[in-house]
Here is the input.
Amino acid sequence: MRSIKFVDVGEGIQEGKIQKWLVKDGDVVKEDQPLVQIETDKAVVNIPAPVGGTIRINAPEGKTVKVGDDIAFVGETAEITATTTQQKASAQKSEVAAAKPATRAAAGNPPSQETKEGAQNVREIIATPGVRKLARDSGIDISKVHGTGPNGRILENDIRSMLHVTAQAVAPTPKFSEILEEKHGHEIDRVQMSQTRKAIARNMELSWTIPRAVHMDLIDATHLSDIVSREKANAEKLGTKLTFLPFIIKAVVEALRENPNFNSSYDRDRQELIVKKYYNIGLAAEAPDGLKVVVIKDADRKSIVEIAKEIQLLHGKIKDQTITLDEMRDSTFTITNIGSLGGGYLSVPMINYPEAAILGVHMIRDAPVVKDGKVAVGKVLPFSITFDHRIVDGAEAVAFGNALIRYLQDPEFLEMLG
Here is the structure.
């Protein structure tokens, strides 16, 4: 008999909720057959059968499981039946034993072999001096922190996550909650947050630790609007829907080439910038269970039509909840398209940690624009850039914004893309 575990699916995910079993207890399954859907804080993942055989489910739907937990077992039918019977008998014996008073061990008893082995099996702690200091200053026992870095290295984020969990464990229930319960108990509902919503909350707290500033400006998008209107029919013939977003992505890539610090991350432990020479553009997308970021990998190597098709494909996967972790990881710079939601003029987007900045693009509206000293009605695209002020200064943000404006107002650049 072989156990089926909730495996490490990457991205630092440590737990998930059993969303739906695709088989029934006692079913005979084939190797690689999808067995269960588990909701993590990033996506819904399918766990397949490692081998063929009869299934015994160990974790019911709705249960939260940790990485490494046994969620099911697979084996020969007779083997599964015998094991189930044996475990039921063991459980009954445990209940009987628990009902009897425990016998206190003699004080002079020597430590058991298990205790000796546990003492010898001390985990090596891999962490930089800066991370160790953060743990000491925060009152965190670093030996109890699970490292998510290479070879189990403990990162700053691991300490902050532990600090957050510890604070939640010891913090008393807010007084306002008690008052609400007392005064309006029958008029309020407590709603359990989904794994995705919990992840959003954690990521927003991380994002809030970034010292940020914001740069805002306007783009004359008249020519861009003309190009999109003209090319829509051609794009439909190629099987995709054309929007402004692919053009904005290509302009962002060019602006990042000119301003590489915006395509970087800040390594606080080593006080260095990690400047990336690849361009994976994240797109914030509203999903049924909360905000997610899908990623256009190697956007600099793709055409407008290819990007448009990929956006359409990824958004479809977000809606039907078939998006994979790989399609949401490794972004270097993120765009949030507030305009697609149908409202808003300017905003202050939250940086997608650990990136250096995020671009918010808003609704394109008819507005007065000045051309050759004359006022005319044109299409205006407002945008805002929230940036990590440890990495870049205001002057660099203006330079990035000006590059974006230049490309999206350049007829030759847009015609080349169209």
